[in-house]
Amino acid sequence: MDLRLLLLTLATFAAGLAEAILTGVLPSLAADLDVSVSVAGQLTSVFSLSFAVAVPVLGWLTRGADCRRLLVISLGVFAAFSAGAALSPGYTTLLLMRVGMAACSGLLVMQASLLAVELAPAAQRGRAIGLIFMGISGALVFGVPAGVLINDWFGWRWIFAVMALYSLPLAAVLRLTLPSRALSSPADGAAYRRQLRSPALNLAQLVSILLLGGHFTLFAYITPWFQQVAGITDSGRIALTLLLTGSAAICGGYLGGWLSDRVGHRRALVVVPVLFAVAMLAIPLSLGHPWLLLAALMAWSTISWMISPAVQSYLLGSDPESGSAGVALNTSAMHLGVVLGAALGGAVISLAGIDWTPWAGVTLVVLSVLCAALSCRLQPAIGRPAPRSQTAPGTPTA
C-alpha cells in the first residue's frame, strides 16, 4: 500500500467531515441560530450545490497547475473558512463560510481522486478510488459522532474550530511527502463533450445523483428522524448509533472499488443500487425492532459509499481518454444528489412528516437501478476498448 494514498485519504476525510458534520447537530444548531430544522438542513444543500459547481469551474481555472500545491493551498483556505464558520454571528455568515468550505472540498476530492489513480497500478484503480472515498466515509465513523459529543460539551462552533486545527498540519505533511507534478487536466473541453454526448455515461451520472439523493433524503435529517420516529432521544445513544453505522460504512468505498475490480464495472454499476434499495427499504420496515433497525442502518450506510468508486470505475473503464472528465463530472453529480436529497427531505418533512423520508428516498433509489440497467444496455462491451480507428469522435470506447 502506497502511504501517499493514505495521506490523500486523510485529506478527503476533511472534505467528508465538512459535508456530513451538521447531520448530527441540526436541532441544536437550528435552535442557536433561531431557524427551523428544515432551514438548517439547507446548510448541507448549499454546501453540496457549491461543491458541484466548484469542481468543473476550479478544474478549469487550475488546469495544468501543480497538484501538490493545489492540495496544500486548498487545505489552508479550507482551514480559514472553517475558522470563519466557528466565529459566524448568524445563519447567513455561516452559509457563506459553508460555500467557501465546499469549494475547497471539491478541489481536494477531485485532485486526490485523480492523483490516486495515477499512483496506483492499473489493475487496482478501482481500489485506489475506493480508498480515497474511505476518507469521506471515515468522517462518518469518527467525525459525526464526535461532532455530536463536542456539540453537547462545548457547542457546535467548536466543531468547526477542530476542523481548522486538523487541516493546517495535514497541509504541511502533504507539502513534504507528495510528488510535485501537474496532472492531465480533467477540464479539457473535448473530454467533457465526449462524456456528455454519451447517453450511457450520462445515465451512469444519474445513478450517482438518484442514489445519493435517495440516501440524503433521510440522512440529512437522521438525528431528528432518530428522535421523532425511531424513539432514540438520548444524545449518547444517537452518537453511538452514528458511530456503529459509520464504522460499518468506513469500508464501503473500498468494497465498491473491490467489487468493480472483481466482477467488472458493468455488473457493479447495477448490483450496488439494487443492494442499496433493499437496505433502505428495510429501515422503515424494521421500526420497533432495535437490532434489526441497527443492522438495516449499518447495511444502508455501508452500501451508500460503494456507489462512488463503482460509478467512477465504470466511467474510467468505458472511455479512458475522457475518463478524468467523467470523474470530475461525477464529483459534481454526487453532490447534486446530496442537494436533491436534502431538498426533497425538507419538502417531505414540511408536507407529509419526517416519517415519510425513507420512503421518498427509496423511490429515487429504484429510479437509479433503472438508470444503471439502461446504461449497461447501451454500453454492453465495457472493459474491451475498441480500436481508435473504429471509434467515432465523441463516442465512448467500449
UniProtKB/TrEMBL annotation:
Where, by residue number, does the polypeptide cross the bilayer? Answer: 36-58, 70-89, 95-117, 129-150, 156-178, 199-226, 238-256, 268-285, 291-315, 327-353, 359-378
Q: Where in the cell is it found?
A: Cell membrane
What GO cellular component is one of the record's annotations? plasma membrane
Q: Which SUPFAM superfamilies match?
A: MFS general substrate transporter
> Pfam families given for it?
MFS_1
Q: Which residues form a coiled coil?
A: none
Q: Kindly indicate whether the keyword Transmembrane helix belongs to this entry.
A: yes
GO molecular-function annotation terms?
A: transmembrane transporter activity
What's this protein's name? MFS transporter
Taxonomic lineage of this organism? Answer: Bacteria, Bacillati, Actinomycetota, Actinomycetes, Kitasatosporales
